[in-house]
Amino acid sequence: MAEQQAAAPEQSAVEEDPLIARFPDAVVADERKGYEGYVVKTDKLLEVARALRDDFGYDYLSSVTGVDYIEDGKLEIVYHAYQIEGGTALNFKVQMDRAEPVAPSLVPVYPGADFQEREVYDMYGVHFDGHPDLRRILMWEGFAGYPMRKDWQEAYFEEETKPFANRWPGGEVHRTEALNPFNKNVKYPRGFDPDSWVPETDAALYAGLDNLTNGDGLKTDELVVNLGPQHPSTHGVFRMVVKLDGEDIVDLKPVMGYLHRNHEKIGERNTWIQNMPYTDRLDYISSMSNNLGYALTVEKLTGVEIPERAEYIRILMVELTRICNHMWSIGFLLNDLGAFQTPALYAIKERELILDFFEATAGSRMMCNYMRFGGIARDIPELIMRDENTLDFLSDLINERLPRAIDELDGYLTNNELLRSRCIGVSVMSPEMAIAYSTAGPLLRASGVPYDVRRAEPYSIYDRFDFDVCTRSEGDVYARYLVRIDEMRQSVRICQQALRDLPLEGEIFTGKPQYNIRVPAGEAYGRIENPKGELGFYIVSTRTHNPYRYHIRAPSFINLNVLGELCKGHKIADAVVILGSIDIVLGETDR
Amino acid sequence: MYGLGIVRGLSVTLKHFVESYIDDFRFLGRRYYDSDSLKARQGASGRGVFTVQYPEEKLPVPERFRYIPFLIYEEQEDGSRQDLCTSCGICAKVCPPQCIWIVRTSDPKTKRPIPEPAEFFIDIDICMNCGYCAEYCPFDAIKMDHDYELASYDRTTDHIFNKARLDMPQSYYASIRPTDYAAELIVREAEAAKKAARAELKRKAAEARAAEKAKEAAAKADDAKSASESEQSE
After folding, report:
1. Do B100 and A342 touch (CB under 8 A)?
2. Residues of B in contact with A168 (CB under 8 A)
3. Distance CA A445, CA A483 (A)
4. pTM for the whole structure
5. pLDDT tens, B155-197?
6. CA of B77 to nearest chain A CA: how many angstroms apart?
7. Could you tell me the pLDDT band of residue A442, with boundaries at 50, 70 and 90?
């Protein structure tokens, strides 16, 4: 695992690595420069994974992603697993030939790998043997091609990497719609005839839904209903295909990809710093958090030190973002419950003040683009709103206004009988299920698993702050709501400490601001506790100006693995509430 | 009693409801479209109806708010405009969605590039308002504007801004971003002072050398004179 260096320097033999010792012919250490972890033989993957989960204690599979090493002719799948007690990742990979990529599916061992494997299939074309439902997830069913492969070019393709050469010095402006969208890269599959082709419809999707199993003699009809993608309660363009027996849900399958913008491919075209405003648009409600995750991951590769003042300001921003997000989430949970907008608007009022602060500091309310590799972009301004002192505003906000707002929210919602009767006991999730399905964030903690990335693997300066990991044991919607209220209180606590300890003077950035950095070669996986869960960034660099691979482990996407299981047996009205309690945002789910 | 939670919740709503009418008494019916009232309703200690009645009331944007970029020119004495932009192209390179096109021309005689943009286009539909162009411009020539009311009926004609549309005077920049402008002035003056000090040093060194040379020449002339005098005396 991580602690491979138990060997003393004078031991010239192979290090005592337990995993390699257990599977000497299947597992080797990854020897590439800047890489870590293990490479597992594809045919032994299931065995190794079972051993990892059962014997070595790595029961929480966090991230499954693919990388296309086109020069080596290989496709690689990278897995990151954690022990639920905390600690660093166990990184293992399988490599396969690009021409015939087949891998065993890990869904029998870690059910949370479901959607992520479908994404690797969709984006890279890897076929997973043993996957229960291998269909495209982000692209539509009839799509041909594998978008994330290095030889696949998108519509309006201009050049492999930015900056594009035709912008200057002789830049001729042209409107995008005047271009031929496919230009030189139109590629049809062999034997394709557009006139006679009939697209795959949702037949495979509907066929995959469970059937009613109780035969009580009466012939009842099952109804398949599509909730979404245009639906006020689906938190964005999100679709749930529900098979109903009357009002009871027999099976539910989430369908996503309606907001897919291929952010990861755009990320490969962008330079390192150009990716930062794109990360704002992932979980667009907590943009500061996304910025921090990306900045931390690239800083792992560059190794730059962050000045103290910048660290404190970063924490302040991220915790205020957490409060913003939970306010929004609770407001919209109440919306889903039918409290038509009133609690949502009351909750969002304090969020407006936090966004005013973001606007005065970063320049924008939501798309903050604030963190840089080595610090932050701008310091906290003297004046907010042109005449109010910013630190007074912050202190007022954090010490008085926010606790009062949270208490008010708690006071009139928590003991509301309507909320209690609709939320208590709905979609109870056991801790084992939560861990197996790779859920993260308030969803995981409401089921009694006290896993918070800020404590499990502290990043930035979180080890200096005094806060509790909010957990509840019931695992139902009410518990998730309570966890969010608790987390808001803890965030206020952290903000108070950050304000108190903020160094009055100091640099906010290490080194000179550079717009075209080269990041040392290697891979890095950096994760933060986003308000919605564990947001991870997996980056591969080949010492150029652009990332070679840029993957986002999106908590909303992976938390949706468990939606189908949670909704079975409940009423259709509960499906909306359960989705609200998982708290997704489509920018992150679809990227 | 069952239902107490609901009743408590309703009392909170009632409190908000009543509070929203107290403003009417405080501002004697002019609670909207009054800048004092707007200020009292915003901010961390704001009370009353939080909503801003846009477009009659507009929240003042903070200084750092960024929307679409604009180019800065300085007005010369003869009325002509001198763009600060030297068409170095860094903004075009650093722009994430690549929405900046710059045409740079060369002097036909010397073949060297003219440090001025011949044309400068920004497609504001593509611009993602990130502010990188302003952040990384080495000449402080492109900055982020505050104007967000740019809606038009025809995006094909109105949404690609050319240099004429993008140009704004330095005074406009100073008015929308006073703190940043003041900081830039300080830096610019410090640089100018350093340059002047260096020029001063150079001048002094040149003077000293000239003085040295003059002294040597005078000494030589003296020697020559004394030599010729001694010759003459002999």
Report:
1. no
2. 87, 89, 92-93, 100-104
3. 7
4. 0.90
5. 888 888 989 999 999 999 999 999 999 999 999 899 999 999 9
6. 30
7. very high
- Give the homologous superfamily in CATH for domain A18-129: NADH:ubiquinone oxidoreductase Nqo5 subunit (3.30.460.80)
Instruction: With a cut of 70, say whether residue A162 has pLDDT above it.
Output: yes
State whether B87 and A168 contact (CB < 8 Å). yes
Task: Give contacts of A274 with chain B, Cβ < 8 Å.
Answer: 94-96, 132
By the 10 Å C-beta count (0-12 exposed, 13-18 middle, 19+ buried), B146 is classed as middle
How many beta-carbon contacts under 8 Å exist across A and B? 154
CB contact at 8 A, A100 and A125: no
Q: Does domain A263-590 have CATH number 1.10.645.10?
A: yes
Answer whether B6 sits within 8 Å of A352, measured CB to CB.
no
Domain segments of chain B as ranges: 1-58, 69-176
- Provide, as residue numbers in chain B, all residues whose Cβ is less than 8 Å from the Cβ of A377: 135
Contacts of A369 in chain B (CB under 8 A): 130-132
Q: Answer whether residue A4 shows pLDDT above 50.
A: no
pLDDT classification of A367: cutoffs 50, 70, 90: very high
Contact present, A305 and A510 (Cβ < 8 Å): yes
- CB contacts, 8 Å: A294 with chain B: none
Across A245-262, average pLDDT? 90
Comparing CB atoms, the residue among B65, B90, B98 nearest residue A162 is: B98
Going by the DSSP 8-state scheme, the letter that residue A52 receives in this structure is: H
**Is B90 within 8 Å of A386 when comparing Cβ atoms?**
no
pLDDT for position A10: 43
Contact between A363 and B144 using a beta-carbon 8 Å cutoff = yes
pLDDT digits 0-9 by tens, B74-95: 988 888 888 899 989 899 999 9
Q: Do A363 and B66 touch (CB under 8 A)?
A: yes
Domain positions in chain A are 18-129, 263-590
For residues A456 and A249, give the distance between their C-alpha atoms in angstroms, rounded to a whole number. Answer: 36
Does B69-176 carry CATH code 3.60.10.10? no
> What average pLDDT does the structure give for chain A?
88
